[in-house]
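Our collaborator T.R. sent over the components below with a one-line note: 'Predict the complex.' Nothing else. No constraints on interfaces, no templates requested, no preferences about which chain binds where. So this is a plain run: every listed entity goes in together, and whatever single assembly comes back becomes the starting point for the next discussion.
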Amino acid sequence: MKPAPFDYCRPSTVTEALEALSSAESSRVLAGGQSLVPAMNFRLTDVSLLVDINRIEGLASVDCDPGGVTVGAAATQTQVLDHDGAASVVSGLRAALRHVGHLQIRNRGTVCGSLAHADPAAELPALAVASDAVIAVSGPDGERRIDAADFFIGAFWTALDDGELITEVRFPAEPPGSMTIVDEISRRAGDFAVAGLVATVEAEGGAVRGARLVGFGLGGVPTRLEAAEAAIRDWAPDHPADTLAEAVMADTADAFDDIHATSWYRREAVAALTVRAARRALAAEEAA
Amino acid sequence: MSLDIDSHIRHSTRHIGRSVPRREDRGPLTGRGRYVADIKIAGMLEVVFVRSVEAHARIVSIDTSEALAVEGVRAVFTAADLADVKTFPDYIPYIGPVRQRPLGTGTVRYVGTPYAAVVADDRYIAEDAAALVAAGTTYEPLPTVADLDQALAPGAPKLHDHWENNCSFDVAPHKPEVDRAFEQADHTFTETYVSQRQTGLPMETRGVVADITDGTLTVWSSTQSPHMVRSTVALMLGMPEPQVRVVHPTIGGGFGTKTHIYPEDIVVPWIARRLDRPARWIEDRMENLVASVHAREQRHEVEVAYDDDGTIRGVRCASMLDMGSGEIFMPGTAPVFVTNACITGGYDFPNMQARTIGVVTNKTPSGAYRGFGIPEGAFVMERIIDRVARLTGTDRVELRRRMLVRPGQTPYVMHGGGRLDSGSHTESFERGVEMAQPALERARARYAGDPDVRVGVGYSNYVEPTSPSYHLTTGHWGGGDAATVRVDPDGSVRVAAGLSAFGQGAETTAAQLAADALGVSPEEVTVVLGDTERAPYGLGSWGSRGAMMLTGSVLLASERLMDKARAIAAHMLEAAEADIVLTDGAFHVAGSDQPSVSWAEVGTAAWIRYVDLPDGMEPGLETSGYFHPENLQHQLDDTGKINAAASWSNGTHIGVVSVRVSTGEVRIEDYVVVHDCGTVINPALVEGQVHGGVAQGIAGAMYEHFQYDPDTANPRFASFMDYLVPTCAEVPHMEVDHFESPAPEQPLGVKGCGEGGTVGPPAVVAGAVSDALSEWGVDLTECPVTPVAVRAAIRSAEAAGTGADS
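Returned assembly:
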């Protein structure tokens, strides 16, 4: 569990970082290192140059305004989790981050790093897709902005090209009258999810008026549950849960098997989480 | 054995029975523990083992040239270089001999087999070179066997060419009375119960540092048994034992895994000798998961005969152990014998016919893990009782009451010869039921409004054999231990024992014992453990033996020392020896506390001022006690039975769980333990053992599971992402109560307590979840109880149409 030899640099500007990233064949960005460094120690990842972005001025900021929350590439998960302003504009951030690892991991791990790593069972990529986040990227050919829906291509595989660096991610404010629920089944507290759900639910008058539903831990990328989004419209607690669950099952036919759970279990679990989220949103609306 | 520590001592404070604070924690808790990995010796080289990535293969060739060319690499050794090292002994006559070599040669039989050792200036360089050795290795893959069925199939690939098949042993007793029970019973059923593969997983992995100076080889090893390592290293390297010193420094847990003597324990000292340089190897966690023994993988095929009223008439059980490749010293064969010996738990159930089978597969060798086979058997028995209760409509608590060993029934001889010398089997269960009732009511109230949640309760009544014979496990060593007690000229006390300690609190325990036996305070007692040069020969710590072995050996040595001290004091006081008593550290004539002599004066006389000694008395004030429990058997009697433990602890575990029907999530709401380990020396230490044991039991009940690919026998785990160890968030609060049924034949009535905690949880969790889901007829037969397993059980019940909701 010792890494193979690699070089390390710690640039102070984005420009220098981009130059460094282009200077070596297998260069990688080091932000929190919570997934990358173990992978290097296991010799699962071939890294010739680590480019540490933690000392780049201004990259660790969390900015919020009524229109949304912008999280810099070096901002830690704890920074965002503890940010009351961010939680009031995008409640899903706090809801998702509560499930991410443990305190020690969140103190180092970054929000943008989690997006770049693109673990299929991670909460933040699913939240990004559910909330139509936009990921700002700098690279040798300049800057571009990528919609979260287009960013995740496969397991641990994103739209980032060689030499590109995420500089920040913008989460738009949640629609008024909606709440975001992040719920998951994990084997232990702090584990990656066996299966999970991000649900942004608009409830009014005791029924669900609309919802954005994104599952995770089901396939290579966050899974938009479109049939379930249709089925949940106008759903109320006295409606049968079965139709909603069946819609989720239809949306998740490709869920995978691994040592922690079977495909059918993941599908059933996300179906149960969807019903649970609808009930929770309605209960919250009633209480409010 | 009667050791009376009070006859000549007037204590103002007794220390046995009190929660004397642990003395061994300051180092580890302040970062000042000195583990094997903390040992630095000038010129020390680093060893990395190259391990097989094939589960079963012939090694055709190993090209080490590229590795040797790396700057900083000092040597690369393979099996051929170790021709002068003897093979690990095959001491047990009735199991298949594995003729294990320290490095894999010819055929490798599991992923993780060490077959080469790279020696370099540091670990980074050594790992770079190890990757080159791995790349330079040519294998000829052989067909694999990944589980019991594959291994036992006709024509299955054989692991060991010189065996007839993959079966290491098959011991099948026949009991006519069990046949009769089956003939007479109203009903029978058959079932298969499964316990999954786990490991003890100490926080500190294994490690070895070896150095040879002036002809003496010193080995620092993270082992549970330093003297056994010494004997084995000396034997295999062909050295006289006095020229081998084995030391264990601070140890971060063992849990059975470090009772074994591994290839690295031999190869690292060999390298130090060969290169005449200090060498060290520290196991990393990736290695640890494949290179330290696994345990618990057993399958039990049972037939049960029972009557309409719930009476269980007889059980036939074939217990099959998946031994992995079997290439481990001591062999990992004994736990399944313990499973069968203890399978009837605290129940009066003689009509058990238990067959014991060991099978090799292409997986990491299995061996010892805290509990040592007891949890697997307890799981089977409790699941059988719950099944019979359900089939006959008998109350589960009532059925257990009818079956438990009752007060006055001890000594009770179990079906396999285990002799329950004493215990509180019925009392513990009744107390547990009483304690669990409010917990059950709380849980029911908590979830009354949630239609998705069911609540259930599970039970386990087990026995824990303590201070066992090691002959059955090793075919060689016995079951005693030794201590030396010395009083120095300044009157301070030193106790040295052959036991080892790695978290249990043995140093604190030894100090309490010596303090009461010599009438001093524990602070005045220095304790030395874990060093073959400083302590007498002992077998180390395992098998819940530490407390009993320390009690026997320390008290024996102390009693001898007191006799001599009193003779010296009598001479100095010009009084008769029989009149001398010791009060708060001062010897005086009974009835008058003046004049008196102190321990320092007695110690000074013994070692320095011979003029104060009685005429003709041999100087010195150091005595030894070699303790062997007198009722401990090492071999089967004429009827095939054996009492292989010096005494038997017992306990009851009861757990209340909630189960979320839609997702299969299980939460342990409350956990109750009633525990009886005889006379308690230190209540806080006993509670700590119970808590830690239960946590590991819950790991087995719900989380930890080594899975292998059935087609390739490749591990499907590489890290703690795949092998799920419960954390403080998963382990529930426990409520613990105690009974004290002294062991009638042991000094002070002490029994062991190290393993019982692990025994209950698999049976309790499976029983409680099955109870919670009784409306579906769910009856779990395997661990771990995962969300997927729970949902699968509900689905299959619904598909079979047995469920109320279907």
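Summary for T.R.: Residues 122 and 267 of chain A are 17 Å apart (CA to CA).
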